[in-house]
Design a protein that fits this description.
By secondary structure, the chain is an alpha/beta fold. About 25% of the residues lie in helices and about 25% in strands.
């Protein structure tokens, strides 16, 4: 598999990672499906969500695949009254990535990034490598360092 921009960024910083490949099912791009393909628990496969706040503009949240984003909590956290997921048709233009292949690393622009605190419960987590069918396995602390992520409680309990 050819290296993605996210993998090249990690290489340039000397950060250890593993590039994992899986069979893509265009009908099911869910974290559950990715976890099944990689034989990992869904809570260790983190999905990247791009949001827009009414005051802050765009930002990124990475949450466990088994979790549901707490929109009201994230709005409070980011100083917004309201936050919404960015419409699918805008994702490529904003990030350079497509749905099911959106990495929190090496986006077109560095957006404020928030990582759910549960990531720190694991020696490694898995995030999108920037294309469908590829994931990056890395230490959560390395993701925090590269993305300058804030660690927060992001999912509905």
């Amino acid at each position: 598999m050819k290296k993605t921009n996210a993998a090249r960024l990690l290489d340039s910083l000397g950060i250890a990672y593993e590039l994992l490949q899986y069979q893509v099912d265009e009908e099911d791009l869910s974290a559950d499906r990715v976890a099944l393909e990689l034989n990992l628990p869904t809570e260790q496969v983190f999905k990247t969500m791009v949001l827009r706040g009414d005051k802050s503009g765009e930002f990124v949240c990475c949450i466990p695949g088994s979790g549901e984003l707490n929109l009201k909590g994230v709005a409070r956290l980011t100083g917004n009254k309201k936050v919404d997921l960015v419409p699918m048709k805008e994702i490529l233009g904003l990030t350079g990535y497509v749905r099911g292949g959106c990495s929190p690393l090496a986006m077109k622009k560095q957006y404020p990034t928030f990582l759910d605190a549960r990531a720190l419960n694991f020696d490694f987590i898995v995030i999108s490598a920037g294309v469908r069918g590829a994931q990056l396995k890395l230490a959560p602390q390395d993701l925090v360092a590269v993305s300058k992520a804030n660690i927060e409680e992001l999912i509905v309990s």
